[in-house]
């Protein structure tokens, strides 16, 4: 185990992901719904592996790959399979009356303060992602040296994957009937938590080179902003699950009472 701890990456797999595995097994064995929890697992692992594995292969130590590296292949391939499987199966949709959902979906965004607040947050997060992405591309601006020196290691994933998703969620809050919001917010939030956990942890870890740590003078604001960046998608999940009426597609008029639920 000591060899793997030096050449692998067991800290998160051995704690958070192990707990997720046990919870999934428990829910499956009891024939309970597990789609939401299941999407949380591949989102986190995929965000980890699509950065970790390619960086090892193309990095300067790519010619020194140890046999333990190949233990990562199941952790890359199985989450991809799990993602395809979970998104292709029928959703665990709540049973909500069509009239109630139709009433919610007729509301303008301005009359739904919480939705409006999330849209503002998502737009702000998009602006932050664009700004950090441009700064990390060898910009002469001093933001990286004064605030987030470790930023470049994270921004490739955030700029090309996170930015489109943030825009999609803002659209989903503005447009009613976007049932995909109920699943994709879960997958996205787990990926963001994985990214931010790794980024913040690496930026504060004593083994990280001094030049890559967050300066003490800017530690509090940078830490708070990054925690907010991670917490927003989680809060969006809770909002979508707690008030799903706006995101459900309404059944056509004329169905029987038993069918007059939401797809």
UniProtKB/TrEMBL annotation:
Give the GO terms filed under biological process for this record.
lipid homeostasis; regulation of lipid metabolic process
Tell me the membrane topology, using the record's own terms. Answer: Multi-pass membrane protein
**Subcellular localization:** Membrane
User: What are the TM regions of this chain, as residue ranges?
Assistant: 34-57, 69-87, 108-134, 154-174, 181-199, 219-238
Coiled-coil portions: none
Q: Name one Pfam family in it.
A: TM_Tm6sf2
Residue ranges occupied by any EXPERA domain in the UniProt entry = 104-237
Task: Cite a GO CC annotation.
Answer: endoplasmic reticulum-Golgi intermediate compartment membrane
Provide this UniProt record's keywords sorted from A to Z.
Answer: Membrane, Transmembrane, Transmembrane helix
Protein name, entry field: Transmembrane 6 superfamily member 2
Which organism does this sequence originate in? Cyprinus carpio
């Amino acid at each position: 185990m000591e060899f793997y701890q030096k050449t692998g990456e067991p800290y998160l797999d051995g704690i958070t992901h192990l707990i997720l595995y046990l919870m999934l097994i428990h829910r499956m064995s009891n024939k309970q719904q597990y789609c939401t929890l299941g999407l949380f697992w591949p989102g986190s692992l995929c965000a980890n592996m699509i950065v970790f594995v390619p960086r090892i292969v193309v990095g300067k130590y790519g010619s020194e790959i140890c046999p333990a590296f190949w233990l990562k292949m199941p952790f890359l391939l199985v989450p991809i399979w799990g993602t395809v499987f979970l998104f292709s199966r029928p959703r665990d949709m709540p049973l909500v009356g069509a009239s109630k959902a139709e009433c919610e979906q007729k509301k303008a965004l301005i009359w739904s303060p919480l939705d409006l607040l999330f849209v503002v947050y998502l737009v702000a997060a998009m602006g932050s992602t664009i700004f950090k992405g441009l700064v990390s591309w060898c910009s002469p601006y001093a933001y990286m040296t004064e605030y987030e020196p470790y930023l470049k290691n994270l921004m490739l994933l955030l700029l090309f994957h996170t930015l489109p998703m943030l825009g999609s969620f803002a659209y989903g809050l503005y447009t009613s009937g976007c049932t995909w919001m109920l699943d994709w917010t879960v997958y996205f939030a787990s990926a963001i938590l994985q990214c931010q956990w790794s980024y913040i942890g690496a930026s504060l870890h004593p083994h990280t080179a001094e030049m890559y740590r967050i300066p003490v003078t800017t530690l509090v604001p940078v830490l708070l902003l990054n925690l907010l960046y991670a917490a927003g998608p989680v809060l969006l999940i809770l909002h979508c699950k707690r008030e799903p009426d706006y995101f459900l597609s309404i059944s056509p008029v004329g169905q029987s009472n038993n069918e007059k639920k939401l797809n």
